[in-house]
Known about the structure:
The structure is a homodimer.
Chain A: E1 2-7, H1 11-23, E2 35-40, H2 47-51, H3 60-73, E3 77-79, H4 89-93, H5 103-114, E4 118-122, H6 125-130, H7 132-138, E5 143-145, H8 149-163, H9 170-182, E6 187-190, H10 193-198, E7 207-208, H11 209-222
Helix pairs in contact in A: 1-11, 5-7, 5-11
Amino acid sequence: xxxxxxxxxxxxxxxxxxxxxxALQNVETEQEYIDVLIYSKSSIPDRTAYxxxxxxxxxxxxxxxAVKTLKTAGAxxxxxxxxxxxxxxxxxxxxxxxxxxxxLEETARHISGTGYKKVGLLATMGTxxxxxxxxxxxxxxxxxxxxTPADQAALMEYIYAIKKGRSVDLARLHxxxxxxLSQGAEAVILGCTELSVAAKDSSHDYIDALDIxxxxxxxxxxx
Amino acid sequence: xxxxxxxxxxxxxxxxxxxxxxALQNVETEQEYIDVLIYSKSSIPDRTAYxxxxxxxxxxxxxxxAVKTLKTAGAxxxxxxxxxxxxxxxxxxxxxxxxxxxxLEETARHISGTGYKKVGLLATMGTxxxxxxxxxxxxxxxxxxxxTPADQAALMEYIYAIKKGRSVDLARLHxxxxxxLSQGAEAVILGCTELSVAAKDSSHDYIDALDIxxxxxxxxxxx
Lengths: 223, 223
């Protein structure tokens, strides 16, 4: 079977997701790697701008087009390595596209397995405003802590710098995270895939939603 | 326009190609990145095994399927970040698929621009046996030097280790290259995209065919 990936949100996060997919597979010949169709569609309108009401341009038509294109091209199951896009997941899931992995659900289930009851969430303004990640965690009785408004504003700049390919200071990510840990979070979720890009060489013990999605995608594809 | 990429040959090389595409674009917002459709189709049968007669299973049907799929899905132009696959380029190009970038031609033209007349070629047995890279270089009056049979056998093992995701010693690549330079090569081509993966953090001055393809693909996509 062929895995489909709606990507480009951001491009760096999709590249890292693809690398994680490869690294998770232990093969003896190239031909054993799963086939993957990646639609890196960075032209999809900004999700946060739409969810927070700053832009009237919905990303949904472009997301639908990407999913349809991948399904028509032969993808069996779809992964979307962008948390904020999961705001639109019900709209995508209700159209008989078949299997679309739910990164929120996968992450919440993973955290539930660790026993954590209160986690910090580093994510976009769109994700915080839309509350859909909070809701997914609440279904597993997990409480969510958010950054202060000042930290959140700085975090958004940090995320958008990564999307533009700028290099960012990993210590700042640890700072955003540390503030949540000192507020009582037992662990911190990298709840925006750009943050997985920032943290890829970090030894800190984050809950990396991109890692969890990659593992879920491999498991699904090997079935 | 949307760039199509027939990838997965190997997966690591396609991941690096995608990263190079991203890094070559200087954007102010995510939406400015070109859209890319990547078909990472590692299931395509081994090219070298077919070209050298070790396997009767032609990669051509799977390559044709990948190109057709990408064109149908909306790709305007196709890049194939795998040198050995260019053995089949005439078969792919003769089927009215429209634009398919020619990595051999792009590399030969680039080298011609530098003024080099004699270059070393580090590539698969399939590429050496098929002579198609030699021919592309010869059309620009560039002479090709090959590794010794012992070095070539070791180089094949090196390439296949990269395809399996094993870490390799960069010093060995410099060794293969150094031998060609001492035979009189003015420069050495990384003429297999796995070698671009090995050399990605190297400061040596290789002619990197993957870099050249990425630049050509961006230029084409921005037109």
